[in-house]
Design goal:
It is built from 15 helices and nine strands. By secondary structure, the protein is α/β, with parallel strands linked by helices. The protein has a single domain, classed as TIM Barrel (Alpha-Beta Barrel).
Length: about 375
């Protein structure tokens, strides 16, 4: 693995944002990921000795680690957001069988029941208070991030479909959409009371150059709730966040898993997302999305996670080249996985994907 990354690249946030804004062919491939599991981060740092000069007792060790890691891997940004804005949710945990396993097991949201299943629980729920949110991380990055990097903002907003599912439980939400829609509306309204001041506070930092909403809305063959329910309880929130982002001159990126065919036109033309992230081969390959709507929005990632888990080096390099040849012309494409760098993706396969991107030159 240490023979990878022989070609050196330097971050260039301005070119990265121009690529997302589809302002012509970029000078090189730009990379993007929603996140890297902490186990992958630590494995990269250990393999390449990235933290030798950092002190883990430094109060800003995490931020300095992210800068070192992101620069080494070839990213033009760090991701950051408000802190002290966690939601109390219902989890279950099982053993993690990945090679780079989570030390405390793998956690899952309870799909049946969340902490809010009735009006009494709604009234008692300990909602996070945006007035008590911490901007510590954003402040530090805003002052100390190298000039050639930027911040992509995310965090406590842009999860409306997910928070509805997580807070109520997916099964409970589905029943409530039929027989207790007022409760669903109350949860939605409360979330927006949190999201709007949170995005306003976040956008005060000028090193932020893009905003990323993360909100899984679908599964393999359709949306998790009906398109009409998404239009009532989900899409308006993304439209508001996109409007705030655009008023500050920032593109709004949307991560959403699942088949969104039934609402894609609205995401593009009404919500006005600037980029779509999360592609799965069994739903839609990113190369097909390029021909379907790549002239309207940017496409992010798309190297399928299952493929990365199982393919050999030759197959990975061939697929990356093909994807870049189809998706890069005109801008509007950044290289990455179809979802995120999960801890069960072989580390070398992930690095091979990035290495092939480093060496690609658009004809």
């Amino acid at each position: 693995m240490k023979n990878l990354f022989s070609k050196k690249i330097e971050p260039d946030w301005d070119s990265f944002i121009n690529c997302i804004n589809r302002k012509g062919n970029p000078n090189r491939v730009h990379n993007i990921e929603l996140f890297l599991d902490i186990e992958i981060q630590d494995a990269v740092c250990k393999t390449f000795n990235l933290l030798d000069n950092l002190n883990n007792s430094d109060p800003y060790f995490h931020e300095k680690k992210q800068i070192k890691l992101q620069r080494f891997l070839g990213y033009d940004y760090v991701t950051a957001g408000l802190e002290n804005m966690d939601f109390l949710l219902a989890f279950s945990t099982t053993d993690d069988t990945a090679e780079n396993a989570h030390k405390d097991g793998r956690s899952y949201i309870d799909e049946s029941k969340g902490p809010i299943t009735n009006w009494e629980e709604f009234e008692k729920y300990p909602w996070p208070d945006p007035e008590k949110a911490s901007t510590r991380m954003l402040e530090w990055y805003n002052k100390n991030l190298p000039d050639d990097m930027c911040i992509i903002a995310g965090g406590c907003f842009g999860h409306i479909a997910e928070h509805l599912c997580w807070l109520m439980g997916y099964e409970t939400l589905c029943y409530a959409l039929f027989d207790n829609r007022d409760l669903v509306k109350a949860v939605y309204d409360k979330l927006m009371e949190i999201y709007i001041p949170a995005i306003k506070l976040t956008l005060q930092f000028d090193r932020i150059k893009a905003v990323w909403g993360s909100d899984d809305m679908g599964f393999k063959t359709g949306t998790l709730i009906s398109p009409d329910d998404l239009r009532e309880f989900v899409l308006p929130s993304h439209k508001i966040i996109a409007e705030f982002s655009h008023k500050h001159g920032k593109p709004y990126l949307l991560h959403s898993c699942g088949n969104l065919t039934d609402i894609m036109d609205e995401l593009i033309n009404d919500v006005k997302i600037d980029a779509k992230h999360s592609f799965e081969d069994t739903i839609e390959q990113v190369t097909d999305a390029k021909s379907n709507y790549g002239d309207k929005i940017s496409l992010l990632g798309g190297i399928d996670v299952d493929f990365l888990c199982n393919a050999n080096e030759d197959a990975i390099r061939k697929r990356v080249r093909k994807t870049l040849e189809i998706c890069m012309p005109g801008g509007g494409y950044c290289l990455g996985t179809g979802n995120s760098v999960a801890n069960y993706i072989p580390l070398e396969n992930y690095l091979i994907m990035l290495d092939e991107g480093r060496n690609f030159e658009l004809a």
